[in-house]
Amino acid sequence: MLSSVCVYCGSSPGTDPKFIQLATDLGSAIGLADVELVYGGGTKGLMGAVANGAFAAGGKVTGIIPEFLIEKEASREALTELSELIVTKDMHERKHTMFERAEAFVTLPGGIGTLEEVVEIMTWAQLGRHDKPIIIANWNGYWDPFASLLQHMDIGGFLHSSDSIKPVIVESVQQIMEVLASSPAGAGADSLKEVL
């Protein structure tokens, strides 16, 4: 089992009430598995749900958030409850720190920011900078359009290393945990310093 996982997800709850419960369940499963949760530091929406789930299960929760987003995505009081809080100067430093602290990446439903995070981590994989597991939680088909776009790019010949960036697309919390459990600890530990 991996020792840490980064979860990308929305700072909003979305319109499907099941997403909040599933995010909470995932956080709980991560905490019970004694895996450190690394996430964007928000205390609202799916971010808050996954962190609350992990924290309630006794897990270690590390939030990484830029200073300018604290008031928008969190409350300073709630952030003091995290196991560890890392405040970065900008989004670039936040994403790099999340990469360095995690051995795998799970993407839950979210918006443009969530999409940008998973696309960037897939880009780094395509460039050969890491081989850490990338998992997409396709709850209620949320990521179907993204999966179709990736297939379209591959058919069009624009994914020159498509075998290295194929995310594992799953539909349940149990499947996410099964993928994490089957991934060797310390996998893909290459540093990104050469490309940043």
Largest sheet: 7 strands, parallel
Which regions are unreliable across 5 or more consecutive residues at pLDDT < 50?
A: 189-196
Give me the number of helical elements: 9
Q: How would the global form be characterised?
A: globular
Biggest sheet: strands side by side, in what order? 4-3-2-1-5-6-7
Strand content: 15-25%
Helix content estimate? 40-55%
Radius of gyration: 16 Å
Report the order of strands and helices. EHEHEHHEHEHEHHEH
What structural class do you assign from the helix and strand content? alpha/beta
Provide mean pLDDT, rounded: 91
Give the CA-CA distance, first to last residue. Answer: 28 Å
Strand runs, count:
7
Q: Overview of this structure, please?
A:
With 196 residues, the protein is α/β, with parallel strands linked by helices. The protein has 9 helices and 7 strands, in the order βαβαβααβαβαβααβα. It has a 7-stranded parallel beta sheet with strand order 4-3-2-1-5-6-7, sandwiched between helices. Helix 1 runs parallel beside helix 9 (173-182). It is globular. Mean pLDDT is 91; it is low at 189-196.
